[in-house]
Write a structure and sequence with these properties.
Layout: H1 6-11, H2 35-42, E1 53-59, H3 66-74, E2 89-96, H4 102-112, E3 117-123, H5 132-149, E4 156-159, E5 164-166, H6 170-179, E6 184-192, H7 199-222, E7 241-244, H8 245-250, H9 261-271, E8 276-287, H10 298-310, E9 316-318, H11 320-338, H12 345-352, H13 356-365, H14 369-379, E10 387-389, H15 390-414
Parallel strand pairs: 1-2, 1-4, 2-3, 6-8
Antiparallel strand pairs: 4-7, 5-8, 6-7, 9-10
Amino acid sequence: MDHATPARFLAAGEATATDPTQAADWLFPLPLRGHSARLLHQQLPLPHPALRISVIIPAKDEVANLPATLAALAAQVDWHGQPWPAGSFEVIVLANNCTDHTAALVRRQARRFPNLVLHVAELCLPAAKAHVGRARRLLMDEACARLEQVSRRHGIIASTDADTRVAPTWLAAIQAEIAAGADAVGGRILTEMGGPALHPLRRIQTADAAYHLLCARLEGLLDPMPTDPWPRHHQHFGASLALTARAYRQVGGLPEVRFLEDEALCQALRRHDLKLRHSPRVQVLTSARRQGRVEVGLSWQLSEWLKMSQQQREPHVDNPVQLTRRWQLRRQLRACWSGCAGAETAALVTRLALPESVVLLQLRQAPTFGVLWEWALAHSPALAVAPVPLSRALLLLPRLIQSHLVAEGRSVVAA
């Protein structure tokens, strides 16, 4: 598969939708969803009264990786290099369907790091539910309930993976972004990759990262979001993803899908017009293993890229020229939906290539801009994007960025 992106898989129906028009229940905690949720809850002690951040880690047969992951969390410091106040954050590991001694290892690590509030629970999920979406959902539901139990609706649920080492200021950077107004924070995920055998894979991954960062720069120029300004990146995956308990409740929790559950959660955040920040200050380092624990994820993508390099094939990505049109139309659509002065609805309708009555009806009825934009993407032929070779996209993007910067500069001078 040359053109493999999370959005493509979500479009195939793996992700589930949460309807923002449904009334949110703000008064009662999330229900314990079935037998597994109750078992998880029963294995954990009461939350510390000072709890502000609950870090969750799904783990299946992770004896080899968890020691470094937990050591990095035990080494968390604030911006001044000082340890966090006692009980202000906790780490919950769910050892699900393990055939090794993952849970026992976590208990040993808890004794090794007595200042780290570290909990572990063990579950054997039914075969149909034994996937990362279910495990992460169980953990996030429990983390949300624990934060609400100590009256921290704006407390933070932070997700990472068992093969990932967070930076020493990971929690401090997440907290700073939330304090600045973000509802959720995607962290920059760097990959640990060495050895000459992986050089071809490293080249593809570096080129792919350059493409996505250039896209983020162009998107920020064409449709700037005050809540996610440049500099920013493009990642919002389970290895480094955080959100407030309030936001988690508002979207109805993590969509329980077999894979790409992190993408599905971020889709739900956008559908509710919640503020997702892609912060360069929030960083983690994850492994480059190519035999992962999920059907589609980083390990799968790395494996696909390695096959491409061996077969001398090039990955394909979304056409930047068509993305430019999409982001320009999104900005126009948002202006019309918001009722901004000078918004040209008639011109927008023409560019979307949709019946005027249909567009006007959606503009009136959409409960959020996120819902409206999803509808437009699903129906407007003008928003379609085709794949192009990665090398071609890397040639186009700097030119598109420069062209916009020059045009923007001229408009400022003219003003």
